[in-house]
Amino acid sequence: xxFQARTLTEMMDSQTVRVALPxxxxxxxxxxxxESIDALSAGDRVLVPFGSRELVGIVVQPxxxxxxxxxxxxxxxxxxxxxxxxxxxxxxxxxxxxxxASPIGELVTLGLxxxxxxxxxxxxxxxxxxxxxxxxxxxxxxxxxxxxxxQQALVARSPRSRSELLDEGVSAHLLxxxxxxxxxxxxxxxxxxxxxxxxxxxxxxxxxxxxxESINRFTAYLLAGVTGSGKTEVYLQAARPLVQxxxxxxxxxxxxxxxxxxxxxxxxxxxxxxxIYHSDLSEGERLATWQAARSGRARVLIGTRSAxxxxxxxxxxxxxxxxxxxxxxxxxxxxYNARDxxxxxxxxxxIPIVLGSATPALESVANADQGxxxxxxxxxxxxxxxxxxxxxxxxRGDHSEAGLTPALIERIRDRIDAGEQVLVYRNRRGYAPxxxxxxxxxxxxxxxxxxxxxxxxxSRTLRCHHCGYVQALPSRCPSCHAPDLHAGGSGTxxxxxxxxxxxxxxxxxxxxxxxxxxxxxxxxxxxxxSAGQPCIIIGTQMIAKGHHWPGIGLAIVLxxxxxxxxxxxxxxxRLAQTLYQVSGRAGRARPGxxxxxxxxxxHPFIQRLMETDYLSSARWLLDERAAAGLPxxxxxxxxxxxxxxxxxxxxxxxxIAADLATSQVxxxxxxxxxxxxxxxxxxxxxxxxxxxxxxxxxxxxxxPEHISQGKAPSNLRWHIDVDPLEV
Length: 727
Ligand code: ADP
Ligand code: ZN
Ligand code: ZN
Prior knowledge:
- By secondary structure, this protein is of the alpha/beta class.
- About 35% of the residues lie in helices and about 20% in strands.
């Protein structure tokens, strides 16, 4: 009896916690805290039994009242990391999964680096930089000559890198034994002392002053600076005093911006090692950065969108460079936008955030115009050089291959002869977007997608850029067997081939995803271009952004019309951004020129772009959006469904639309997605809009549970996308 009574009290007393687990269910899971664990609190990383498995999860509510009978509850298996996720970060994660209508358990995936999502403790790779400990410095090794000579080497210069020491003949065994004996220890990679940057111009100075005013308090700044106006210099000078007093600054960069060049520049100016975080890093490297961020040891953090969720101990400022870039939006899983999340985070931390771009997103321009962000403008280039001259090339009636008109070739040749570089932008990779038969009208289409196959010349293939399908290039028409097939339109490969023939003397560099697959390949090209030798660079979006290549005198956009008439309501915004970004590559060290090819020279938007600057064009587009009831004036979310049968996806969405008929949001659809069929799946979507973001959120947050209760057919995939960037 006595025994039983005691157990009962103990059970009554024992803590019940609610844990987030990486499973696709819209809820948390309750566990008892066993006697072996003192107590658990929010943010603890735990191992729990789940069905027949064990999962790593995060404690979200440490004092839950479970609705389940206690004997139905299992106990937490182990406490793996006490206080792993600080409160502030846990709140951000909770906001993110809620705002983006995602299963709450996804916060585990967002919040932990891969190494901490596994139950086995992860061994950090051997530290690359080493220094003596106090004990190591004070010991005398008269009987251990090897130890002695390493000691002397580290007294002479410290820290030293492991690879350098190994090269000098120090054995790995010696390093290990001295580490174990506490004589040497891992050290941070040394940074060169902070170098002073250029003297800022007046506009830059007032931007830095404005940012510095709100140190220790939240303000969101939109730094709208024309290309080459020295935005990065503004971030760096604003960050420098913060880093010097030991605080942390987080830099978010789009995928493409995160090159060694950028990292080195930030390091040199801030005089601190930069810690990198992005998904191409090894698990060990990611863990190392994550831990250094959490401890506060890392003061300068640079990463892509996932770095938004690094734990920060002494955060003082966040910078989001090229804030308009769509790579800040995650396109699967939790569809968050790291820029918007960063603003939330800065607000919670009560620190300034700087969103920088030459071509800010319409959302950000609207926020600035409504006073939510403070607009800082840099209207001039640092070099005193004017922005490049824009020139329209009317290509109506032109039949030049790949759009390379004689006039254009002439211009390119002149620039090359003058020792300059030329940038040619074409937003399509491959040789030709269409292959067809002029005899019978056959076209090479993907059997799995509603899209043409793209012809690739060098690999002699037809490829689907949507599902990855590949087949050999047919030599005759598969339908009527006519011997000649016609390649319609042009991609980067064709532009390159044509240029090689027309201007054989100019070195050509092609940059697209077929040609450049690895980060270090791209870095070589960046270095090569920075060196400034005359050449023609042909590429897709990859070359349009952020790069500073002073050698470029002429930038060209071949055939801009596609995005002008895109069915995506963001088409004109993207076009404006691309044009300003591409044109901005030219004329950084010499007067530059920009050529825009179009068959619609009188189109009102093209005219507007020619007459005004980016911000005025953006405001004009904002008025159009408002008139059409589109974001950012209206809040938008989509429910997307895809299934092997179109009717299935449609019926599913119709049912949801009917359920939402009485809600506060407007529902349109089901409408086909821009790419109606992909990889065998028919894709439809519902548009949910509301003038009130809060009303829309109230609906999107209830939807996942509502949908899972209604049991979606198992062969149908669905998701909700809040603030979608794609239609
Ligand atoms: P953005 O980020 O606007 O493209 P950057 O900050 O990268 O521009 O500046 C472009 C180049 O101009 C860099 O090489 C930078 O060092 C240099 N620069 C920036 N500000 C100044 C300045 N005030 N005076 C001289 N050079 C500058
Ligand atoms: Zn396909
Ligand atoms: Zn044919």
